[in-house]
Design a protein that fits this description.
Layout (H helix, E strand, L loop, with lengths): L7 E7 L5 E8 L4 E5 L2 E16 L15 E15 L2 E4 L2 E18 L23 E14 L4 E11 L6 E9 L5
Antiparallel strand pairs: 1-2, 2-4, 3-4, 4-5, 5-7, 6-7, 7-8, 8-9, 9-10
């Protein structure tokens, strides 16, 4: 079993011409892997978030027009389990289908404000904080194919927002990796 030593990440983007910033952070401790018969079990816990700060001035990015204050945040905390069943497809190929079930907590906020004395409607709607809040379930499924030379291909998808009665999220992912040989 490989031990993952990188527990999280943090990044910050700052516009040097204007007082605005975008911070993101993630925490993903290695909770554990186990075998149950021939199946692989993986437990996972992850917290990810994004915070943006924008004061009420704007320069070249918005053609010099004055903008209202917009500070926002969004994130997700999740925990769950994934079960994979590897089988030998051929002497050089292992196919591993998987299914996962996760509990998610979404949190977000937005305090976008119009300019004082302005009755103009914003050009873009603000972050939909009224419904990206609270608990929901998420299911994942897919498969990976591992080849003897170290190459790997994977396809997967997820459906989230289950049980929230306010939103549904879905995503698909495909990945191919080929190791370089010296």
């Amino acid at each position: 079993m490989a031990v993952k030593r990188d527990y999280g990440s943090f990044s910050k983007a700052v516009n040097k011409d204007l007082p605005e910033s975008l911070d993101s952070a993630g925490l993903e401790p290695n909770v554990g892997k186990a075998r149950a018969g021939v199946a692989d079990l993986s437990r996972a816990t992850k917290i990810a978030g994004l915070v943006g700060r924008n004061l009420s001035i704007c320069g070249r990015a918005c053609f010099g027009t004055l903008q209202g204050v917009n500070n926002f945040s969004t994130g997700r905390a999740s925990t769950g389990v994934k079960v994979a069943y590897p089988w030998l497809w051929s002497a050089t190929t292992i196919v591993k289908p998987y299914v996962g079930l996760y509990g998610d907590y979404y949190f977000s906020g937005d305090n976008a404000s119009p300019l004082a004395g302005s009755n103009a409607a914003p050009l873009l709607p603000s972050l939909p904080t009224q419904f990206i809040q609270g608990w929901s379930a998420r299911v994942t499924t897919g498969f990976s194919v591992d080849y003897a030379g170290g190459a790997r291909m994977s396809l997967g998808g997820e459906l989230g927002g289950l049980g929230s009665q306010n939103f549904i999220t879905w995503s698909f992912q495909g990945r191919v990796s080929v190791p370089f040989s010296p």
